Amino acid sequence: MATLQDVAVAAGVSPATASRALSTPASVSMERRHRVLEAAERLGYRPNRSAQALASGRSGHIGLVVPDLANPFFATVAKGVQSQARGAHRSVLVADTDEDVRAEREIVDDLQPNVGGLLLCSPRMPEDEIRDAAARGPVVVVNREVAGLASVSFDVASGVHAALAHLRALGHTRVAYVGGPSTSWSDARRRAALTEVAGLEIVDVGGQRPIHQGGVAAADLVIAAGATAVLAYNDLVALGVMARLHARGLSVPGDVSVIGFDDIPAAAYVSPALTTVALPLTRAGHEATTLLDGLDAAAEPPTVRLPVELVVRDSTGPAALPLKG
Amino acid sequence: MATLQDVAVAAGVSPATASRALSTPASVSMERRHRVLEAAERLGYRPNRSAQALASGRSGHIGLVVPDLANPFFATVAKGVQSQARGAHRSVLVADTDEDVRAEREIVDDLQPNVGGLLLCSPRMPEDEIRDAAARGPVVVVNREVAGLASVSFDVASGVHAALAHLRALGHTRVAYVGGPSTSWSDARRRAALTEVAGLEIVDVGGQRPIHQGGVAAADLVIAAGATAVLAYNDLVALGVMARLHARGLSVPGDVSVIGFDDIPAAAYVSPALTTVALPLTRAGHEATTLLDGLDAAAEPPTVRLPVELVVRDSTGPAALPLKG
DNA sequence: GAAAATCTTGAATGCGCTTTCACGGCTCGA
DNA sequence: TCGAGCCGTGAAAGCGCATTCAAGATTTTC
C-alpha cells in the first residue's frame, strides 16, 4: 500500500508538499502539484483515513444513527446521506438503534468521538441529551427539531392539513388518527396539526408501533370509532390498517378511506394504491449532509423544513354512510 | 475528551499497561486491571478508533458495499451486519453503488484501505476483480459465490425446485420465469436450477431491473407467453407483475399464480399476499460478519450456503385453463 | 536599489494508540 | 543453592498523515 511518503519520494518533493498538493492544491506550485498528482495516480495512492483523522483531529466520516434500517423511511434517508457524502469523499458509518433509546445513547457515545459529524435521524432521546451531544461535536437532527440545533425536518402540519382538506372535500366528517410511538417527535407534530383543523371530527385512536403490525392492530379501533376515514402515522401503519380492514370485509375506499405518510415505494405498489403525504426523504438525507459540512459553531444553527406533498391515489374516495360506532 | 494517557495517569500505571488492560485483560494483574477499568469508566474514556487503527494496522471497521440501500433486500442484510458488528464493538461503513459496476469498483478501492474487512453484497464486478480485492484484505462475498473466496449465499436451487414443485402440484404445466439483471450471479443460479426440473415447461421471458417497475414491464410478456404461473427474480419484480396483471384485468391466483423470491416485508402486506421463497437475509448479515471476523488467510475460505424456505401465501392457486399465447 | 511583504518549500513535531523490547522479580528444576 | 524460564511492567518507537515553523526565493513598494 503506497503511503504519502512514497508519493513524495516518487515526485521528488517533501511529504509536506505532497500533503499540500492533495489537500490544498492552491498552495503548491503548478509544476510540483502535477508531479505529485501524477505520482499518486501512478502508485495508486489511497490516503489512510485513520492517519488523516488522527493528525488533523477531523474524522471525515459521517455518523448516521437511525432507529431501523429495514424501515424504508430510514433506508431512503440513508441512501440520500450516502450519495451526498460520497460526493464529498466522506464515508458514512451507520448504526441502527432498533428503536431503543438506551441503545441510541450508547451508539451516540460510541460513534461521536470517531466521526466528524453526527446525523441523528428521528432520535428518541430527550432533548437535553441531544443538546449534550451537539455540544461535543457537529450534530444535525433529522425528522425532528430541537431548539438551538441544526435540523432537517418536514412541514408535517401542511401535510396533515392537505390530507384533511382532501378528506373533507370527499365528504368525510369523522376521521380517525392512528398515531406512532408516543415518544416520537413527528407523531406529536401530526397530533398538533390535527387539532388546528375545524369542520372535521378527529378521533384519536392512540399510538402504535410504526410498522405494519401496528396498523393491523389499530384497524379494529378505527372501525369501532365509527370513522369513515383514517389518517395514519406512516405508510407502513396505513398499509396494516388496510390489510386488516380488508380482512374484516371492509372495502377501501368504498367503506373507509386511508391516508398514509412518507410515500414509501410500497405505497404505490399495493392495491388500492395508497394516498399519502409524500416526504422528500432522499432530499432530507442530502440536505442534512450538506448542513453538517457547513456547520459553524459560531453561527445560528440552520433549520430547514422541507415541503411535503399530498399524493392522491386510490385509497381515498367519497365518504360512505358512517359506520355505526 | 479523555485519552488513554489520562486513564493511565489516573490509574497510576503506564500507558502500555492501560492499553493492555483494555485490549488484553489477561495479560495484566487483576489489581491493576481493575484500577484501569475503574479510571476509564470514571473519566468516560472512549478509545480513538483512528489512533487504534493507525497504531495496530487493523481498522476495526467493517465495510459493507451494497447495490441499493433502499432495496429491502439489502437494507435487511445491512441490518443484520450492523447488529452483529455492534456486538463485536465494530462499526459499519456502508456504501451504496447504485447498481453501477464502475461506482462499485471505485468504492471498493476507496473503502478497502480503511476498513478491517469488506462485505461485498451481490457484487456486480467480474470475479477476477473481486479476487484482486480479496488479495488485498479480508473479503466476504454475500449472495454470490466466487471460487476460493469466503462467501455467504442462499440455496437458491432448492428454492426454485420447491417453487416449481408447488406449482406442479397445483396443476400448472407452463411457467414463465422473469429474470433479473443479466450480470447478476443469483439470476444465473436461478436459471441454472430451472433447467434441471422436468415435467414443467419453463418459458424464459428475459431479464428485468430487479425492482417493481421491472415486473410491471415483464407482465405483458408473461401473458403473451401463455403461462399460467410466474416465477420472478425477486419479490419486488413479482409485485410488479401482479400489479400489471391486475391492471390488465387478470386475477391472481385465479388466472395466474405468482411466486417471488426473498420474502421482503411487503410480500406479506400486499393482497393477495405473495407466495415466495424466503431467504434468511438478516442471518446472512450475521453469518457474513462472523465469517469476516474469523477469516484466516491460511485456511480454506469457508463457504456457507443458507437454507431457504418456500412460504406459501395467497398468490398461488390451482392452474386455470392456459391463456392463449 | 534596498527593505519589506509575499509565496513556496522542507524539517520537524505530534495526534492517540499498539507493540516490541528489555528489565526486574518470580517460580521451578536440578 | 543457582541458573533457566516465565510473567507483569514500563520505556520507547512509530503507524501515516497534517501542520507549524523557519528559511529561502521571489515579488512588491517607496
Could you describe the 3D structure shown?
- Chain A is an alpha/beta fold.
- Chain A has 3 domains: 4-47, 434 Repressor (Amino-terminal Domain) (Orthogonal Bundle), CATH 1.10.260; 62-154 and 281-307, Response regulator (Rossmann fold), CATH 3.40.50.2300; 156-279, Rossmann fold, CATH 3.40.50.
- In chain A, 45% of the residues lie in helices and 18% in strands.
- Chain A has 13 helices and 12 strands.
- The first copy, chain A, has helices at residues 4-11, 15-23, 30-43, 49-56, 72-87, 101-111, 127-136, 156-169, 185-195, 212-224, 235-247, 265-269, 281-293; strands at 62-66, 92-96, 117-121, 139-142, 150-154, 174-179, 201-207, 229-232, 257-262, 275-278, 303-306, 309-311.
- In chain A, the strands form 2 sheets. In chain A, strands 2-1-3-4-5-11 form a 6-stranded parallel sheet, sandwiched between helices.
- In chain A, strand 6, helix 9 and strand 7 (201-207) form a beta-alpha-beta unit.
- The longest helix of chain A has 16 residues, at 72-87.
- The first copy, chain A, is elongated and about 85 Å long.
- Chain A starts with a helix and ends in a 14-residue tail after the last strand.
- The model of chain A has no long low-confidence stretch (mean pLDDT 93).
- At the A-B interface, helix 4, helix 5, strand 2, helix 6 and helix 11 of A face helix 4, helix 5, strand 2, helix 6 and helix 11 of B.
- The structure holds a DNA duplex (30 and 30 nucleotides).
